[in-house]
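This follows on from our talk about sequence and fold. Go ahead and set the record down below:
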Amino acid sequence: MKITFVGPLISTFVKNDVTILRQEYELDAIDVNLGKGIQGGLKLILLHIRIIASLLSADALFFWFADYYTLIPTIIARLLKKKVFVVAGGFDITYLPHLGIGARARPLRWFAVKHTFRFADHIFPVSQDTQFDLDSAVPDHRPSTMIYNAVDTDLYHFDPRPRQRIALTVSQADSVPEYKRKGIDLFISISERLPDIPFHVVGLRGDALKQARHDALQFPNVTIRPGRVPLPDLLEEFWDAGVYCQFSIEERFGVSVAEAMSCGCIPVVAPVNALREVVGSDGYIVAREDPAGIVSAIKQALLADDPTRLAVSHSAARFDISERGRQLLKVVNSLMKSVT
């Protein structure tokens, strides 16, 4: 059987589901990279055509995120009696109106998103917090099963090398609002309080990268490594760092946090959304409004010994790609049995 798979293939967590579904299905994986303005509008039209053309020879649609491009193909799929699956846990559920982030901040986009959630066959929120927000924002949504996002723990594994006194954060943010949502501005400002500790910012692009370079001008202990960072280099960052920081304003899961934990980094995060679920008791959860507490937590995390780091790595195994694969395929296979 064939599935038309649509999502931003630049993201590791999206590619993880491609790997999972290809274990049992033929997949036509379609990348989403729309951009803005007239060019973005043209790309959106072409994306619709590409999805619908693929759907005609497929048995199901699988979307990573609901968005402008998901509603019309979803309706067509339902008319053709083909299954539609949607992973929820990004711009579709997020709502930060003061930053202009979230589908609900744009009426037409939210119309497409909420009706996708109403017409799809099954939805997969990526965290309990996302499930709660989905239930609140679209109470009449279709059936859903919460399945945590995935990390390839064989790849992102513990390394016994001596840890350096490095504080690390990783983000693919490419705009100033995303830069602020991810808390990179706070991470850089905290570096002023710990001048003897290197702060590494990895993966930023576009306007987010420009903003970070501007904000870090007065802090010589901040190193900014632009994205896209090759995987071997990213792993070296995770294995070298003593502490991983994520001071997001909002976070649907926090894949980089789970990857860092799997590599043995001690997490220091803000108490928002799913970050509390990912970190639990395996790190430090400190309010963004408490810089002194953040500094103290970073210092404590850097003192962690190897047994502590190994325990954190083992804890991250609950997010392994094999567990997501088992749960995801169980639901997809069950619904696909009814496809004629």
Summary: Residues 126 and 148 are 5 Å apart (CA to CA). The chain has a mean pLDDT of 94.
